[in-house]
User: Fold Histidine--tRNA ligase from Streptomyces venezuelae.
Amino acid sequence: MSTFKAPKGTYDLIPPYSAKYLAVREAISGPLRKSGYGYVETPGFEDVDLFARGVGESTDIVTKEMYTLTTKGGANLALRPEGTASVLRAALEANLHKAGGLPVKLWYSGSYYRYERPQKGRYRHFSQVGAEAIGAEDPALDAELIILADQAYRALGLSNFRILLNSLGDKECRPVYREALQGFLRGLDLDEETVRRAEINPLRVLDDKRPEVQKQLTGAPMLRDYLCDACKAYHEEVRALITAAGVAFEDDEKLVRGLDYYTRTTFEFVHDGLGSQSAVGGGGRYDGLSEMIGGPALPSVGWALGVDRTVLALEAEGIELDIPPTTSVFAVALGEEARRVLFGTVVELRKAGIAADFAFGGKGLKGAMKDANRSGARLTMVAGERDLAEGVVQLKDMESGEQVAVPLDALVETVRAKLV
Assistant:
């Protein structure tokens, strides 16, 4: 038993289970890579003010959940709790918005950190794949990202998820709604912290999941009644484009999301098989975030999908992903000369693009064949001194049990033909 364990609320990804996570990341990023999104990777920690300004000082993420640290040089840093602010910072620092036509389309994958009460589907270290389209105000971009996420989930075989959609207005109409909502909230029986949140960002109170808060929100003014004509038209175009693409969604007037930077389009993907942690991903438009963190006006939209929760959604629907074995050919050598020859053959197979492995550790035939079975290899090649004297290797099909002698100089081509 090791002296150390993974920190509370975190997890290790270990084969063969980790292959499922890799397959999910590949499925989510696949539609993005085919739609003009380039890969970006940012540091695991950033200036704490990047998140305080962008994510919002009233959010639970900033007030309760960020892992912060002070470096030996006195800099205040935070482990990244989400991806959008970091990706936008990186794009601005690299002047990607000046390099050519907008939008700048980026996708990313990585680990994020929030100090939360650990439970199934909610971890202190979690994995996301995200996408950002930076520098263009176009309802077709909002629709594109929603459609791409829907395609990713469908490609994985998921069907029991729903897309929730709302508009949060913009800097023209939201202040009027904000004032009306604050007036309503001041008449409620709320705890001190919620009252403070209502004064900083009252929309966040609508996102409060506590029943004692939710029951008091009956009759609260709805943002749809305050949207300006431009926001209404924008939202209707997003809805029309999604509908035309055959993607089903539900209008959710209370959908706010947990970050302060959202404007206009906001959306969430929820799965009905995950209990209280039903959100598997979400995002929206954040037209003012660039200016919040010191950049120029760059209207943008994006999303992040949780890899952890997507895996749980697959399990809830009983979906087994078709994950090919990591090894196609397994080599079992009997004797020292055979070990040298077959090891060299494994190297040649790998050079030829064939996934091959070797029975390491000097095991006998019985133990080595157990390793071959465990590897999931389709073919096993076995050779001893007599085989080498005849210039052949015994090639066994692990599915049919058929075994044939194959000349060494024809082995790579024979293996390639059998694996087709």
